[in-house]
Automatic annotation (TrEMBL):
Regions of compositional bias (Acidic residues) in chain numbering: 46-63, 124-133, 714-752, 778-791
Gene Ontology cellular component terms for the protein in this record: Noc1p-Noc2p complex; Noc2p-Noc3p complex; nucleolus; nucleoplasm
Localization (cell): Nucleus
UniProt record similarity statement: Belongs to the NOC2 family.
InterPro entries cross-referenced by the UniProt entry: ARM-type_fold, Noc2
Bias (Basic and acidic residues): 72-87, 95-107
Example GO biological process: ribosomal large subunit biogenesis
Keywords carried by this UniProt record: Nucleus
Keyword Transport: no
Any one Pfam family match given in the protein's UniProt record, by short name: Noc2
GO molecular function, one term: transcription corepressor activity
Stated name of the protein: Nucleolar complex protein 2 homolog
Location of region: Disordered: 41-107, 120-169, 705-791
């Protein structure tokens, strides 16, 4: 109990001492005030009265004012002196004086403190807290310094600092000799100093591509040849230099990537590497030449491990790679995709989802318009995105579910609202190409238990798109959707009823109706979604429609050619094709349909014959699958025909994409028609001798006829012979005309050429023939002589 009371008393003493210390400090703050400050506060009533007296004194006599001011100044000087002494004294010293006075006032309590706690009495009277408080506030100097003298002193004492700053402001111009020296030195012994010089020079070179002066770089690149040499040096040698400097060795497992941040030398060099990687991305964003972009992308692909060690630089690199993948040239697209794939394979958790999202957005933006030149690019983007989605099926399911649901929402709005704008949100190239993308993704990643649930909703969205506006104007879009369904069905081994949508086209279009207009060029169904009213009456529309139906029906039957139920599957289509052939009267349309019908019936008969030899039942699914697998390996008549047809069709499509005609490269013989004048000259050269002899004989005969006419001789008995001779001469005349090039073939050419026909040689007139017939007597004698000879 006694100890408890002593402890209580001890605590009470400590509290009272602390209170005294606080009160003393507050009191000291009042004492620190000067006279002017104290009078301004108005805390003391006496001060107020003095101020009032001073005011009355001022009114009474203005002469005493200077005296009073002088007295106040003296008093203020005294108080400030005492204040300075007290401040020097310190609060701790004052507290020690109070404790010493406590010894006289209360000796018993003082002895109690000596017995129980000597630390309260014996402490250092140097108050550090006071010094700290004084340091918080700025104290005015006693004397003002001269500014000019201070500057002169600074210049005099620090001449080296100015020279150093001037040296920093000076930039070094990079030359080709410096680049050669750097290359030789850094290959022998790569040091951090050399790396810093090269990276700073590279930064200065990259800064010139955007019109900047190089910023705070030490170096300056002003010549294009120096710029090319420096960039070429960095692209070729920088990767090997960094690998050697960081002492990085490739892992035995090639699939595992060795990050440069694992090297013990990384911390010492990572700032220079960071500068170089940032300059490389900036250079990639400024280039326009495809060959240079390809070279930089190859180097960037090497530097991917360094980018993975620096997240900020990696994000900027991904942005540029996506830009090159979506808008660059063909080689640049491939290299950018390889770099993106490398980043995602080694940092899936950090970058895969965001990269897939950006790739999908870029794909949709590039699919807004479709042309023969853009189709290869769109197909490339589809295949590369399918490759990226294959890295993680769980992420693929999340993205696929989200984007297929968006397509379904657009379709639902169009079906419910039934307005032109809502129809347009579905019937556009972006919507169609998105359907193709997910068909390709699901087909590429099949079989996958994670993605299997997405097949059915995607099929429903495509079928709903076909049924939205089932008119003839949107038959091209229907054909695109049927092609997507065929791709999904064949790649996922899922049966999708595509044939009814194709057979419906045959029934709706009247192929017997004569076209209302002839078109010069065929319609390319691969790059159109709808037709206008003029296209619907053209002959090219029906020709192209037959070709497209032939291709799609053949592709679908090829995907089911080895199925054990092929005969039952093909039966409705066979009936519809026969009905079409019965109604259609145009041979050009009946010929491909008849050929397709024959191939389908042949394959159906082949499957039926093989099926009859099977010893298992329909319920045995394992045996059925094994049987279909064997048939796919052996082949069927339809699969063999399709393989040959596909090669020819692929060649035709490539020619269409390149803008050439289909029959251009088939090496058919050329039919060149000779001009009329050339044919005449050639005939004369070939048969010149023959016709010259005939002409001489004719001349002799003409002389004989004329001589006989002078003497006059008529024999009625020889009229028949004259007629025969006349016919012979007319034949000779025709032969002579033929020799001049005016035969039957020439008559056809004359009719085609029109105006050129007037230039052809004329035949003998009737009057000339009558004159020739006048000398029949002489000719009879000749004939009689010839007849005697014959006898």
């Amino acid at each position: 109990m006694l100890l408890f009371l002593q402890r209580l008393i001890y605590n009470y003493v400590v509290v009272t001492l602390n209170l005294q210390h606080l009160i003393c400090s507050l009191y000291r703050k009042l004492e620190d005030l000067s006279v002017d400050e104290f009078l301004q506060t108005g805390l003391d009533s006496g001060g107020d009265e003095d101020s009032g007296d001073e005011g009355s004194g001022d009114e009474d006599s203005g002469d005493e004012q200077p005296k009073q001011n002088g007295v106040q100044k003296k008093e203020a000087g005294k108080t400030t002196d005492t204040d300075d002494v007290d401040k020097k004294k310190g609060k701790a010293h004052q507290h020690k004086d109070q404790l010493s006075r406590l010894k006289n006032k209360d000796p018993e309590f003082y002895r109690f403190l000596q017995d129980n706690d000597q630390s309260l009495l014996n402490f250092d009277d140097t108050d550090s807290s006071e010094d700290e408080d004084e340091k918080k506030y700025h104290t005015l100097p006693t004397a003002l310094e001269d500014a000019s003298s201070g500057e002169e002193d600074a210049e005099a004492t620090k001449p080296s600092d100015a020279t150093k700053q001037a040296k920093k402001d000076e930039t070094i111009k990079v030359t080709e000799k410096m680049i050669k020296d750097w290359r030789s030195a850094i290959k022998k012994d790569p040091t951090p100093r050399l790396l810093r010089e090269v990276t700073q020079a590279f930064k200065a070179a990259v800064a010139t591509t955007k019109g900047e002066g190089g910023g705070q770089c030490r170096y300056k690149v002003a010549d294009s040849s120096v710029f090319n040499a420096l960039v070429l040096f960095c692209i070729k040698d920088m990767y090997g230099v960094l690998q050697k400097m960081l002492n990085l060795k490739p892992d035995k497992d090639s699939k595992k990537l060795v990050l440069p941040s694992s090297s013990p030398r990384w911390q010492k060099n990572h700032l220079d590497i960071k500068m170089y990687l940032g300059g490389l991305v900036q250079l990639l964003s400024c280039l326009t030449e495809s060959s240079v972009i390809s070279a930089v992308l190859r180097h960037t692909n090497q530097m991917v491990p360094y980018y993975l060690s620096l997240p900020k630089q990696c994000r900027s690199l991904i942005k540029q790679l996506l830009k090159q993948w979506s808008t660059g040239e063909e080689t640049g697209r491939v290299l950018a995709f390889l770099a993106l794939n490398k980043v995602c394979r080694h940092k899936q958790d950090a970058y895969l989802s965001s990269i897939l999202k950006q790739m999908y957005i870029s794909y949709v933006q590039n699919c807004k318009f479709t042309s023969p030149l853009q189709l290869p690019m769109i197909n490339f983007m589809q295949r590369t995105m399918a490759e990226m989605y294959s890295l993680d099926t769980q992420v693929t399911y999340e993205h696929g579910f989200l984007y297929i649901r968006q397509l379904a929402i657009h379709l639902r709005n169009a079906m419910t609202m039934k307005k032109k704008d809502t129809y347009q949100s579905v019937y556009n190239w972006q919507f169609v190409h998105c359907l193709f993308l997910w068909c390709r993704v699901l087909g590429t990643l099949h079989p996958s238990d994670v993605l299997q649930p997405l097949i059915y909703p995607l099929c429903q969205v495509i079928i709903g798109t076909i049924k939205l506006v089932p008119t003839a104007r949107y038959f091209p879009l229907r054909l695109h959707c049927c092609r997507a369904l065929t791709l999904l069905s064949s790649s996922t081994n899922t049966f999708v009823p595509v044939l009814p949508f194709l057979s419906e086209v045959l029934l709706k279009v009247d192929f017997n109706k004569k076209p209302g207009r002839m078109s010069k060029k065929p319609i390319n169904f691969a790059v159109i979604l709808k037709l206008n009213n003029v296209n619907l009456i053209e002959k090219a529309y029906k020709d192209g429609l037959i070709d497209q139906l032939y291709d799609l029906i053949l592709e679908f039957f090829h995907s089911q050619a080895c199925s054990i139920g092929f005969p039952e599957l093909a039966l409705p289509t066979i009936i519809q094709l026969k009905a079409f052939l019965k109604e259609c009267k145009v041979a050009n349309y009946c010929k491909p349909v008849r050929q397709l019908l024959e191939k389908v019936q042949e394959n159906s008969g082949h499957i039926t014959a093989l099926r009859q030899k099977a010893s298992f039942g329909v319920a045995d699914t394992a045996a059925v699958a094994q049987w279909e697998k064997k048939q796919s390996e052996d082949g069927t008549p339809l699969t063999k025909y399709y393989s040959q047809w596909a090669k020819l069709r692929e060649r035709e499509i490539q020619l269409e994409i390149s803008g050439k005609e289909r029959m251009e490269d088939l090496d058919l013989p050329e039919l060149k028609r000779r001009k009329l004048s050339e044919k005449k000259a050639e005939d004369k050269r070939a048969f010149g001798d023959l016709f010259d002899s005939d002409d001489s004989d004719e001349d002799e005969e003409m002389l004989k006829i004329k001589n006989k006419k002078r003497y006059g001789s008529d024999d009625d008995d020889d009229d028949d012979d004259d007629d025969l001779d006349l016919s012979d001469m007319s034949d000779e005349g025709l032969d002579g005309d033929d020799s001049d090039g005016s035969g039957g073939e020439d008559d056809e050419e004359e009719e085609e050429q029109g105006a050129k026909a007037s230039k052809a040689p004329e035949q003998l007139a009737t009057s000339t023939l009558e004159e020739l017939a006048g000398g029949a007597d002489d000719l009879v004698e000749d004939l009689e002589l010839s007849g005697d000879e014959d006898d």
